Amino acid sequence: MDWTDCPIIEKIQGKMSGAPVLRHSRMRPQDIISNEAMGAEWIAEAHGLSVDDVRTVLAFYDQHRDELPTEYISPERRKAMLSAPAV
């Protein structure tokens, strides 16, 4: 999966070694995912981001989580995914 499919994620050569980041920041999407249990408002306030941008990243992740490496998944989400009934 390519994080740059998310409209608010960018990859710029020389910025965070070309890793995907939230536009106009140095925050990697996996860092947002890893802190998801803290809540979108806390993440936004702690890192100087807009709540809408954090929610956009989390929503994109929810839509594409099967395509992401499991190290991006927070322990709480991983536990919930393992205990959820198959669809």
Walk me through this protein's architecture:
This protein has 87 residues and is mainly alpha-helical. The chain has one domain: Winged helix-like DNA-binding domain superfamily/Winged helix DNA-binding domain (Arc Repressor Mutant, subunit A), CATH 1.10.10.10. The protein contains four helices and two strands, in the order ββαααα. The chain has a two-stranded antiparallel ribbon. The protein is globular and about 40 Å long. The mean pLDDT is 83.
Can you say what the CATH homologous superfamily is? Winged helix-like DNA-binding domain superfamily/Winged helix DNA-binding domain
CATH class: Mainly Alpha
Question: What is the mean predicted local confidence, pLDDT?
Answer: 83
Number of helices: 4
How many discrete domains?
Answer: 1
Q: What gross morphology would you assign?
A: globular
What fold name goes in the CATH topology slot? Arc Repressor Mutant, subunit A
Strand order of the largest sheet: 1-2
CATH architecture: Orthogonal Bundle
**Estimated helix fraction:** 40-55%
Number of strands: 2
Question: What class would the helix/strand composition place it in?
Answer: mainly alpha
* Distance between the first and last residues' Cα: 22 Å
Task: Report Rg.
Answer: 13 Å
Order of helices and strands: EEHHHH
Q: Which residues form runs of ≥5 with pLDDT under 50?
A: none
β content, as a range?
under 5%
User: Could you give a short account of the major beta sheet?
Assistant: 2 strands, antiparallel
